[in-house]
């Protein structure tokens, strides 16, 4: 069972998400919040597996909610659901701890797949965001370049694939994928999948 918390200040959007999630047998809604402070309180109290999080919130924005939740809910995963797809918003959200990033015009099935992908270790990104990441990745001018195979792995990572899925896609073993990810993390000086994308954005790699 995937425990989900919905955070959005627009009642129509929030209620629509709640109604959709309640139809899913493997998802349990643990609460809903309309502002940042309430979201932070509920995250700490309910320890949800996944938070569907808007970035523009009264009282405390989504980025600050993620930052302040790190110590109190270290296992909670954040799926940003927003209308903004600029580098500023994407980079800030991923750097703050978002594991996924979708736009509000995503189809219900896409959103549900993203929630489940987070639980499997994926990092689902909105196609337009993924395209931006991949399109500008080749423009990177950093001290230590990624190899072509590392770029292939990072490309699949951007698409929200788990290690197992990347291994199948590239016809490699999971251990090899883990090795490539370690090299990518080392070259980008990051500790996680989401941070890899965030740092790449901030450095102009993506």
Primary descriptors:
alpha/beta; Rossmann fold; 52% helix
The Rg value, from CA coordinates, equals: 17 Å
Strand content: 5-15%
Uncertain residue ranges: 138-143
Order of helices and strands: EHEHEHEHEHHHHHH
Give the overall pLDDT as a whole number. 85
Structural class: alpha/beta
Helix content: 40-55%
CATH architecture identity of the largest domain: 3-Layer(aba) Sandwich
Lateral strand order in the biggest sheet: 2-1-3-4-5
**Can you identify the CATH class of the largest domain?**
Alpha Beta
Overview of the structural elements:
With 206 residues, the protein is of the alpha/beta class. The protein has two domains: 2-119, Response regulator (Rossmann fold, 3-Layer(aba) Sandwich); 130-202, Winged helix-like DNA-binding domain superfamily/Winged helix DNA-binding domain (Arc Repressor Mutant, subunit A), CATH 1.10.10. The protein is built from ten helices and five strands. The protein has helices spanning 11-21, 36-46, 62-69, 87-96, 108-119, 127-137, 148-158, 163-170, 174-188, 193-202; strands at residues 2-7, 27-33, 50-53, 77-82, 98-103. Strands 2-1-3-4-5 form a five-stranded parallel β-sheet, sandwiched between helices. Helix 9 (174-188) packs parallel to helix 10. It is globular. The relative contact order is 0.11.
Brief overview, please?
With 206 residues, this protein is of the alpha/beta class. The chain folds into 2 domains: 2-119, Response regulator (Rossmann fold, 3-Layer(aba) Sandwich); 130-202, Arc Repressor Mutant, subunit A, CATH 1.10.10.10. Helices cover 52% and strands 14% of the residues.
């Amino acid at each position: 069972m995937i425990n989900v918390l919905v955070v959005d200040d627009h009642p129509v959007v929030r209620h629509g998400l709640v109604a959709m999630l309640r139809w899913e047998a493997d998802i349990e809604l643990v609460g809903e919040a309309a502002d940042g402070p309430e979201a932070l309180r509920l995250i700490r109290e309910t320890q949800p597996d996944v938070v569907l999080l808007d970035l523009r919130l009264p009282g405390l924005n989504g980025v600050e909610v993620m930052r302040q939740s790190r110590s109190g809910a270290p296992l909670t995963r954040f799926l940003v659901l927003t209308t903004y797809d600029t580098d500023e918003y994407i980079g800030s959200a991923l750097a703050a701890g978002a594991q996924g990033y979708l736009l509000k015009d995503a189809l219900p099935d896409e959103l549900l797949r993203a929630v489940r992908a987070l639980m499997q270790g994926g990092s689902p990104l909105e196609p337009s965001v993924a395209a931006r990441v991949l399109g500008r990745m080749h423009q990177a001018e950093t001290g230590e370049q990624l190899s072509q195979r590392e770029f292939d792995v990072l490309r699949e990572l951007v698409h929200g694939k788990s290690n197992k899925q990347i291994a199948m896609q590239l016809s490699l073993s999971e251990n090899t994928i883990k090795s490539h990810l370690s090299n990518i993390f080392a070259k980008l000086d990051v500790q996680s999948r989401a941070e890899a994308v965030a740092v790449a954005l901030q450095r102009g790699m993506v």
